[in-house]
Amino acid sequence: MSMNILVLPGDGIGPEIMAEAVKVLELANEKFNLGAELTFDDLGGAAYERYGSPLADETLERAHQADAILLGAVGGPQWDAIDPALRPERGLLKIRSELGLFGNLRPAILYPQLADSSTLKPEVVAGLNILIVRELTGGIYFGQPRERKVLDNGERFAFDTLPYSESEVRRIARVGFDMAMVRGKKLCSVDKANVLASSQLWREVVNEVAADYPDVEVSHMYVDNCAMQLVRAPKQFDVIVTDNLFGDILSDQASMLTGSIGMLPSASLDANNKGMYEPCHGSAPDIAGRGIANPLATILSVSMMLRYSFNRADAADAIEQAVSQVLDQGLRTGDIMSEGCESTGTAGMGDAVVAALKNL
Ligand code: NAD
Ligand code: IPM
Ligand code: MN
User: Fold this and answer.
1) Which domains are present in the chain?
2) What is the ipTM of this complex?
3) Active-site residue, from 11, 238, 243, 248
4) Is 23 annotated as catalytic?
5) pTM to 2 decimals?
6) Which residue out of 69, 92, 248, 281 has the highest number of ligand 1 atoms within 8 Å of its CB and is therefore the one to mutate?
7) Phi/psi zone of residue 291: left (φ > 0), alpha (ψ -120 to 50 degrees), beta?
């Protein structure tokens, strides 16, 4: 199986965390004979500066040709005021949409060594292992029409549209159920069916798909309650399946259960498990350029890539084990720092994972 990987470091801390993830990938490549070949390009603000577009046609073509894509993060205040169609985030949305990456897996797993890093009590989060399955190419992020205008009375006015077709709901529900089948066999579908028509359809279709998965225990929850339950008793969840916007918000919230958003990787998959892999966090402009960002979410995204796109559980497991060993050693970036631990930076953390992986 060929392993052509397109690497898109992006903006802000993107290049810093990606440098560490690439070190780990290159070592795994040698150690496990993966045959990985890396190509580098730009996305987001970096692409806007280089190509005049946050996703150049040639980059999109490279993404189509690649077997998998590894992404850092995009965006930054310097591009907040440009034409909205050219914003870095548009490049990210376009690559997700053009590649049909509708199934976004965001696992929130608490490494036991980080029980003290979460802002929640250790007993609330101990043993946490939940998977948020987020619909990624539909809903309010892409719905048309959307418009900003000035009304006749001079008021500024804007609206977005939240559409879902039954086929879009069915395919993401299937991802959720398939994941539940290989995990704890519990699926909670999160919506706002007490208010939104799109959520009413969502719930109906999830119930139809449930008929094909009699072994999975299905529940439905309103998104406001889910936000509350995630901090009250997060271990009640196994798989959460939800729409694009709710999944965006709930996954950032879930990240704090694991200690930091700097720990949360993700996979965005198409119907054939071709995927793009990226940390759930953004470009963190507030800490960019200082060498202090946590690279583990990106390193763990490499592991997800090897597991889901290339079926290399051996290499994926080894990377996760190396990360766990480094946490055992007490090494911490600032975002996961706790008493008695040793502070390190982005490169220090990446080097430690490389050293641990070498010795496995
Ligand atoms: P953010 O995730 O970039 O940062 C939120 C907070 O978390 C910040 O305080 C940041 O310092 C911290 N943080 C994030 N990643 C970290 C890491 N690896 N290690 C340590 N701390 C980390 O979210 P934001 O500030 O709302 O957005 C900043 C920019 O990133 C915006 O332009 C936004 O659009 C973009 N963004 C991009 C992606 C992506 O590329 N997938 C995701 C989210 C946000
Ligand atoms: C994410 C990000 C993106 C999203 C932005 C940058 C478009 O927040 O990947 O979680 O909202 O999907
Ligand atoms: Mn987000």
Assistant:
1) 1-103+274-360 (3.40.718.10), 118-258 (3.40.718.10)
2) 0.98
3) 248
4) no
5) 0.97
6) 281
7) left
